[in-house]
Amino acid sequence: MNKDPRYWHSRGYLPHFDKDGYTQFITFRLADSVPQAVLENWRDDLERDEITDADFRRRVENYLDQNYGDGSLRIPAIANIVQETLLKWDGERYRLISWVIMPNHGHIFLSPFDGISL
Fold first, then answer.
1. Is 16 a domain residue?
2. 118 CB-contact burial (10 Å; exposed 0-12 / middle 13-18 / buried 19+)
3. Which of 19, 24, 41, 64 has a beta carbon 3.0–4.6 Å from 7's, enabling a disulfide?
4. What are the backbone dihedrals phi and psi of residue 5, each rounded to the nearest 5 degrees, phi first?
5. Residue 112 pairs with which residues in a beta bridge?
6. 102 vs 118: CA distance, rounded Å
7. What's the angle, vertex CA 7, arms to CA 12 and CA 20, rounded to 5?
8. Which residues pair with residue 28 across a beta bridge?
9. Radius of gyration, CA atoms only, the chain
10. pLDDT above 70: residue 6
11. Within 13 Å, how many C-alpha atoms sit on residue 43's CB side?
């Protein structure tokens, strides 16, 4: 993992990595897909160095795969809005390599073009 601080940003949430031309795997989730108390416990574990970044990501992925929350993305019309939004900038801001939309989260694999910040 690239740990160069020039490319890591945070707005009070989990840190995000952003570098021109760097192919990225991005996971997004619905707000109710992981209870806030669970996230706070995991963040506390991270801050106390009780788990690694990789362990944290595994915990999140495992929890997301349990389909917690109302799963609004299982509704075809909503999933289609997300998909159309991803496709809108394909070829202009990034190269969209692949994506999947699950009931409560999604995964995106893309390469942003030079000069484009995610």
1. no
2. middle
3. 19
4. -65, -15
5. 94
6. 22
7. 125
8. 106
9. 15
10. no
11. 11
In a domain, 92, yes or no: yes
Q: Which domain holds residue 90?
A: 21-112
In-domain check, residue 117:
no
What lies within 8 Å, CB to CB, of 87 at 6+ separation is 96
Q: Could you report the per-residue pLDDT of 33-83, keeping only the tens digit for each?
A: 999 899 888 888 888 888 787 888 888 899 899 999 999 999 999 999 999
The three-class DSSP label of residue 30 is coil
- Phi and psi of 101, rounded to 5°? -115, 120
Q: Which amino acid is at 58?
A: R
Dist CA 7 CA 61 (whole Å): 23
Ordered strands of the 105-112 beta sheet: 24-29, 105-112, 94-101
- Which letter, b or e, does each residue of 30-63 get, where b requires 16 or more Cβ atoms within 10 Å of its Cβ? beebbeeeebeebeeebeeeebeeeebeebbeeb
> Among all chains, which residue has been given the structure tokens 């795997």?
25
